[in-house]
Amino acid sequence: MRIILFTGKGGVGKTTMAAASAIKATRYGYKTLVMSADPAHNLSDCFQKKIEAYPTKIAENLYGMEINVQYELERRWDVLIDYIRLFFKSQGIEDVISDELAIPPGLDELVSLLHLLEFYEKKEFDVIILDCAPTGETLRLLSLPEVARWFMNRFFGIEKKLFKLVKPVAQPVLKTPLPNEDVLDTIQELYIKIAKLKEVLESEETTVRLVLTPEKIAINESQRAFAYINLFGYRIDCLIVNKLFPSNSSGYLSKWIEIQQNYLNEIKTCFPVPIFTVEFKDEEISGEKLFKLAEELYDSNDPTKVFFKDEPFRITKEDEEVIVSIKTPFLSKETLKVMKRGEEIIISADQWKRVIFLPQSLAFKKAVGAKLINGELKIRLR
Ligand SMILES: Nc1ncnc2c1ncn2[C@@H]1O[C@H](COP(=O)(O)OP(=O)(O)O)[C@@H](O)[C@H]1O
Ligand SMILES: [Mg+2]
What we know:
42% of the residues lie in helices and 24% in strands. By secondary structure, it is an alpha/beta fold. Bound molecules: adenosine-5'-diphosphate and magnesium ion.
């Protein structure tokens, strides 16, 4: 199943491009679902049709859905939420507040991704298109499976399966309520799902598409997003530069055309993936106009094609050393920090962190150096 995620700065046209891509996919015969994971949903506005919190038919083979996080949380993860609530209460935190605290930051985003996984497993659709929130939140969303897995492993020692054994002895000593069997099962289920989710998102059938406008701020934001998405191990297969003024515009706009062309050239030289362009139309794009835009999008290509293939992460052998290579374009040596601890390599850049779980055989090797070559970080283990 093909999964395509759309992200970019606010207002650049993510939802419009996601919706038009979905329409185009149906023209190639794919049963397609376009899901909105942006809490500020606007798929309904875009299609000019009420889109529900479940797959809503829009046209032949075309379905839309706006995820309702609160509803999902209560329906599927109530056991966990109840426990978190109980946990806060035991710490002397009032009910009203603990209600609010019961949804830890990031959990709502995780719910969207778990939903995606569910559709993936059911194989009900050929293509799922995810219309994500603006870049910053999408980055948080994409870094989440890894952070959650790391955290749960640390906190609950899931892989060591210690937790269940510890429970009966520890209960009378500790003040905090230990989770009961149901909660433990839920946590384990969640853990397994997150691991699967990571696998799906990192696989070759999933790609991210960045939408941007030909403006300095959008380019800068896209460069950072490009770097971090790569760092997390996901694949970007193309960029869509939206809202380009038609080249026959005259008068007031002629200066803008020149400015935009310069930015477009800059985008073409600095991003190592195919670039598609979309003209600034003379009115907003919704309803029927989306169907027209779909025809132009991606030139005459199948929109589900993987336009660029790359390995964001590789482990190779060189003589006595093992080299772990990670794509980190646009990142400087100064922002990158690398740490190795047992079977984990932790790479951080600004506030973002990637934890790479190495195969067991590499756990005892020492990191002897790291180099940044052509936008790729190479860590040497010996
Ligand atoms: N190529 C375009 N020409 C004209 N209007 C556009 C174009 N792309 C998007 N728009 C309009 O810009 C607004 C923001 O687009 P939207 O897709 O909702 O952005 P985002 O999801 O990134 O916030 C909408 O009103 C949309 O109709
Ligand atoms: Mg949007």
